[in-house]
């Protein structure tokens, strides 16, 4: 297995759960002010086992449904941003894409128009239960719920998502309430996702610019552009910062950088040698072929960089990844094996057929992609996978189990990395469980 050199201080707080009797449940008592801070009290459960089981299943169903909707919302926003970027570069020539883009903006604009008209009528006291501004009383009620939890900026962004608009009209009330709560909880993530990809939510509001509505004017006010690639921004306590290492900005790239001057033979170590690197993992050809990992992997589109104190920058999923899925490739600057100036992100690059004989190092301290920020766990959700594809060998990141939306994506740096180092991930089979006191202090 490829070995990762870096070692952020991983730590998961070890909480020992108190086992409750099966016929008891926790209920938060309404205490007076001078009793605040007292522990929760055990009260005999009145629900039967069947009722509790049904309630648990219902809760799980709602959670699954809300996660499905949120994943679809991120996908909708990403798709619109891709089409808009192609339009700005005059690349969109297919009729369906252009019509889809126009249709989505028209639907979102109609929802925004209804919302603003309702606000104007309310301002002069003309709204009533029979108001026909919205298509239904449910839509009016749920838009009102949204505004109690979400900013108008966030509502305008969400309005561009078909999944959000469908949930507004068709989902049951409990799913809708949980969805609004999760959107508010992840407001920084959704706003950063939309802004960093160039979503045009302000275009929905331009025709209302002359109206004296404070929240509309606030959304239309100039906002700083998130320049650069979206994986060059880190969410830290609802604020944003650029990732840096050794006082240098960390730049995102989508392929390995090869400089012949770094190698004595001037040859690219990732070029496939059939007798050394085996068959192609896509077409199983023994000789060099034209295969390549085509398209943009989902991991390159639907993950974000988040601070995970005290471990530092980590990666959070913005969709659901399935076991066995290739999330992306590990990219950086190719360096000789004896390169010593990257002790944080350097990854050994070797053929899948030859264990223990690395061909180069992939140094991602300055140039790399999101995979360099994967934190370590002794019970990881992904693994490094050495592959032979077409004319090259590569190192990919593959999911070893299903990964849910908003879950941190982790990887195992390998046991060799943890010699004389301490891993604080807290897993039962942690590499540092057997470390001696001397090794721990070192």
From TrEMBL:
Keyword match S-adenosyl-L-methionine: yes
Region span, Disordered: 1-21
Keyword Methyltransferase: yes
Superkingdom of source: Eukaryota
Subcellular location: Chromosome; Nucleus
Keywords (A to Z) from UniProt: Chromosome, Methyltransferase, Nucleus, S-adenosyl-L-methionine, Transferase
Gene3D superfamilies attached to this UniProt entry: SET domain
SMART domains attached to this UniProt entry: SET
InterPro entries, A to Z: SET2_Histone-Lys_MeTrsfase (IPR050777), SET_dom (IPR001214), SET_dom_sf (IPR046341)
Protein name (Swiss-Prot/TrEMBL): SET domain-containing protein
